[in-house]
Design goal:
Layout (H helix, E strand, L loop, with lengths): L3 H21 L17 H23 L1 H23 L10 H27 L16
Helix pairs in contact: 1-2, 1-4, 2-3, 3-4
Amino acid sequence: MISSSTAKRTVLGSIIAILILTVLEFPPPVGFETRPQSDVSPIWLVFFILILIVEIATVPLVYKRPLVGRGFGITAAILNILQVIADQTHLMQSEVAPLSYSFLEYTVVIASLALAYSSWVIPRLEPRLYPMSSRGNVIPA
């Protein structure tokens, strides 16, 4: 089992990795996307912005409110994976994604799985979130 601080650092590292990969998915000169962006629906732009907001909100929440951060981290991971599935199944664009771009997306899926797992275990590792019950399990002061 990993420690709470390691899980929180994994959440932070996963989000940083996902954000870097997201920048690399932009069109040139920044990233590797070669398909025309004019084909993408505004709905997917809103979805992309929602993912960014949830990812960025996850970082402080994981440290200040781990139970809420857990939900945000898992939600961010699911939204990232859904976006990759939508792109790979041509729901976002009708053109096939280049191989290098697909590799970037698959790496986002791996980082999202790490984000989901580390978000899931944080509350379980936080002892202050689970007070002792009043059935005699309380340690005398």
